[in-house]
């Protein structure tokens, strides 16, 4: 049963290139699968996308020169994923299930699926010989070649290999203590949390889904990656500050800022999308946050809303290419590389608004969950050249393999 749901989810994903987690949540909500089947379905969906290029490389000789419908390719991808990566599932079960699904497309199709899969298990895996080093990394770790080349140019070969390998490991589920409702010491005493490795607010939970616990529901902890937890601390908001959070949803950093300000001072928070603002509102309620005013709005136009030099501190956690979070969102790997150009212009526009609204002596943090230097170091370099009264206080890039967290960039600047 898990496989038919995985098949539907992946078909929807390939059809409209939706976000995987949205397609997965919608399908699983409708289904009556048992917990273990839901887990298997999730593993198949994410595993197939995470390893898609390696799977396609192996499948290619079996479908070469044949016209195979998109849906049948999807079925072959998820079947190969199970055969290549899930040792616990017997080969006959994978093949029988795939053939049953294919029967709905007609006898010839099911015969074809049966033949491809049986040949695949019978034969040796296709070799990577003849590929150069970057092509090999691309196929082995399923990162498109342009991305591997980009990482290689920006970070060198050794780091590129480590980044790509780490992207295919399971993400750590990190929590952050919400000091508005609990202390870290008190929660550590409960015995189910561990200290983090990077953030002093982190609580690691390895007993299942943190979102289903009473700690989460009562707002004592929230889910946030450890590297992302460093951003609000870097901004270091004070209890009397007037703070602007330009890109707030789902509110992880907004609520962290509020906790650091002990619910005092004032935070103006914005996000472009109304539905995402609802998510922030839910998190503000759950976490007992009282000093945030959240609204839907375009932060590239905030110059028209506030006068110049209004805020003591500004957080610009910018929309970005997301190359730091490929462990959690593997589908980002297959986005068109041209989206980066649009993002860079948007980030520049947002930064200009931040600059205009920041008081003299004010502090701002620009952060992204990407490791693309054009959106990070080079963005800041250009910004500082344009505004010599801005001084970089601290800048940090965290690569995913260093602490087994998301990759992140953050830069703290002061207006002179
Ligand atoms: C990296 S996410 C923010 C994550 C958030 N700071 C957190 O820690 O939970 C970037 C956000 O920017 C929002 N966004 C994109 N363009 C925007 C714009 N022009 N104005 C305001 N928000 C925007 C997106 O909807 C997205 O929620």
Automatic annotation (TrEMBL):
<dbReference type="InterPro" id="IPR018314">
    <property type="entry name" value="RsmB/NOL1/NOP2-like_CS"/>
</dbReference>
<keyword id="KW-0963">Cytoplasm</keyword>
<feature type="binding site">
    <location>
        <begin position="247"/>
        <end position="253"/>
    </location>
    <ligand>
        <name>S-adenosyl-L-methionine</name>
    </ligand>
</feature>
<feature type="domain" description="SAM-dependent MTase RsmB/NOP-type">
    <location>
        <begin position="155"/>
        <end position="416"/>
    </location>
</feature>
<feature type="binding site">
    <location>
        <position position="271"/>
    </location>
    <ligand>
        <name>S-adenosyl-L-methionine</name>
    </ligand>
</feature>
<dbReference type="GO" id="GO:0006355">
    <property type="term" value="P:regulation of DNA-templated transcription"/>
</dbReference>
<feature type="binding site">
    <location>
        <position position="317"/>
    </location>
    <ligand>
        <name>S-adenosyl-L-methionine</name>
    </ligand>
</feature>
<dbReference type="InterPro" id="IPR054728">
    <property type="entry name" value="RsmB-like_ferredoxin"/>
</dbReference>
<keyword id="KW-0949">S-adenosyl-L-methionine</keyword>
<dbReference type="InterPro" id="IPR023267">
    <property type="entry name" value="RCMT"/>
</dbReference>
<dbReference type="InterPro" id="IPR035926">
    <property type="entry name" value="NusB-like_sf"/>
</dbReference>
<keyword id="KW-0489">Methyltransferase</keyword>
<dbReference type="GO" id="GO:0005737">
    <property type="term" value="C:cytoplasm"/>
</dbReference>
<comment type="similarity">
    <text>Belongs to the class I-like SAM-binding methyltransferase superfamily. RsmB/NOP family.</text>
</comment>
<feature type="binding site">
    <location>
        <position position="298"/>
    </location>
    <ligand>
        <name>S-adenosyl-L-methionine</name>
    </ligand>
</feature>
<dbReference type="InterPro" id="IPR004573">
    <property type="entry name" value="rRNA_ssu_MeTfrase_B"/>
</dbReference>
<feature type="active site" description="Nucleophile">
    <location>
        <position position="369"/>
    </location>
</feature>
<dbReference type="InterPro" id="IPR049560">
    <property type="entry name" value="MeTrfase_RsmB-F_NOP2_cat"/>
</dbReference>
<protein>
    <recommendedName>
        <fullName>16S rRNA (cytosine(967)-C(5))-methyltransferase</fullName>
        <ecNumber>2.1.1.176</ecNumber>
    </recommendedName>
</protein>
<dbReference type="Pfam" id="PF01189">
    <property type="entry name" value="Methyltr_RsmB-F"/>
</dbReference>
<dbReference type="Pfam" id="PF01029">
    <property type="entry name" value="NusB"/>
</dbReference>
<comment type="function">
    <text>Specifically methylates the cytosine at position 967 (m5C967) of 16S rRNA.</text>
</comment>
<keyword id="KW-0808">Transferase</keyword>
<dbReference type="InterPro" id="IPR006027">
    <property type="entry name" value="NusB_RsmB_TIM44"/>
</dbReference>
<keyword id="KW-0698">rRNA processing</keyword>
<dbReference type="GO" id="GO:0008649">
    <property type="term" value="F:rRNA methyltransferase activity"/>
</dbReference>
<keyword id="KW-0694">RNA-binding</keyword>
<dbReference type="GO" id="GO:0003723">
    <property type="term" value="F:RNA binding"/>
</dbReference>
<dbReference type="Pfam" id="PF22458">
    <property type="entry name" value="RsmF-B_ferredox"/>
</dbReference>
<dbReference type="InterPro" id="IPR001678">
    <property type="entry name" value="MeTrfase_RsmB-F_NOP2_dom"/>
</dbReference>
<dbReference type="InterPro" id="IPR029063">
    <property type="entry name" value="SAM-dependent_MTases_sf"/>
</dbReference>
């Amino acid at each position: 049963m898990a496989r038919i749901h995985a098949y539907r989810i992946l078909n929807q994903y390939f059809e409209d290139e939706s976000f995987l987690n949205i397609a997965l949540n919608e399908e699983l909500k409708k289904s009556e699968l048992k917990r273990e089947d839901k887990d298997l379905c999730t593993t198949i969906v994410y595993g197939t996308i995470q390893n898609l290029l390696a799977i396609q490389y192996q499948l290619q000789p079996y479908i070469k020169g044949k016209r195979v419908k998109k849906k049948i390719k999807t079925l072959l991808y998820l079947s190969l994923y199970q055969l290549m990566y899930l040792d616990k599932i017997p080969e006959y079960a994978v093949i029988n299930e795939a053939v049953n699904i294919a029967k709905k497309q007609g006898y010839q199709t099911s015969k074809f699926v049966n033949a491809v899969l049986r040949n695949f298990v019978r034969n040796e895996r296709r070799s990577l010989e003849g590929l150069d080093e970057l092509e090999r990394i691309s196929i082995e770790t399923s990162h498109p070649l342009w991305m591997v080349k980009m990482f290689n140019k920006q970070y060198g070969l050794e780091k590129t290999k480590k980044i790509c390998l780490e992207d295919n490991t399971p993400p750590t589920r990190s929590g952050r203590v919400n000091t508005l409702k609990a202390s870290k010491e008190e929660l550590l005493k409960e015995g189910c949390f561990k200290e983090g490795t990077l953030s002093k607010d982190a609580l690691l939970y390895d007993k299942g889904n943190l979102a289903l616990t009473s700690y989460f529901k009562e707002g004592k902890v929230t889910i946030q990656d450890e590297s992302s937890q460093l951003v609000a601390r870097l901004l270091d908001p004070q209890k009397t500050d007037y703070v602007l959070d330009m890109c707030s949803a789902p509110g992880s950093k907004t609520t962290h800022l509020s906790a650091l300000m002990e619910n005092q001072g004032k935070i103006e928070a914005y996000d472009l999308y109304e539905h995402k603002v609802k998510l922030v509102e839910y998190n503000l309620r759950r976490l007992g946050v009282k000093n945030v005013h959240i609204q839907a709005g375009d932060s590239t136009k905030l110059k028209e809303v506030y006068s110049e030099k209004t805020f003591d501190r500004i957080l610009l956690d910018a929309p970005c290419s997301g190359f730091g979070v490929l462990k959690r969102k593997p589908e980002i790997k297959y986005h068109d590389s041209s989206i980066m150009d649009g993002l860079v212009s948007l980030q520049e526009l947002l930064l200009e608004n931040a600059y205009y609204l920041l008081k003299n002596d004010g502090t701002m943090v620009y952060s992204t969950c990407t490791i693309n230097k054009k959106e990070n170091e080079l963005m800041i370099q250009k910004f500082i050249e344009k505004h010599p009264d801005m001084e970089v206080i601290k800048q940090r890039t965290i690569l995913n393999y260093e602490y087994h967290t998301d990759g992140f960039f953050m830069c703290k600047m002061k207006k002179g």
